[in-house]
Specification:
106 residues, 4 helices, mainly alpha
């Protein structure tokens, strides 16, 4: 059974979308943590891209997906709550909101 992050989206789909985004944008240099002995909140490698990938996939499958559903799926995938919330808002402002405005204008 495949792990499901929400709304019928599998972890494999999220990982594939993250890989696609990294290939398109470039992964960038890895930063050393400020406090190496401090436990990081997110348990995955690219939490920001993961939130964007989850939000994009969920929105493509259901244009009426809610913020709560996307954030819940991201947290379930291993992203810290506040990272998920912040990145959903950034994704919304850059992807969903302009698409909705363009649809209304058409």
């Amino acid at each position: 059974m495949e792990a499901n992050v929400g709304n019928g989206i599998t972890m494999e789909e999220v990982a594939a979308k993250v890989g696609e985004m990294e290939a398109k944008e470039g992964k960038g240099g890895e930063k050393a943590p400020k406090d190496a002995d401090r436990l990081r909140k997110s348990s995955i490698g690219s939490p920001v891209r993961a939130v964007w990938a989850i939000a994009t996939l969920m929105w493509e499958k259901n244009p009426h997906v809610t913020r709560k559903e996307v954030v819940g799926a991201a947290v379930g995938y291993g992203v810290a709550l506040y990272t998920a919330r912040t990145q959903y808002q950034a994704w919304y402002a850059n992807v969903r909101k302009p698409a909705e405005l363009a649809a209304k204008a058409a």
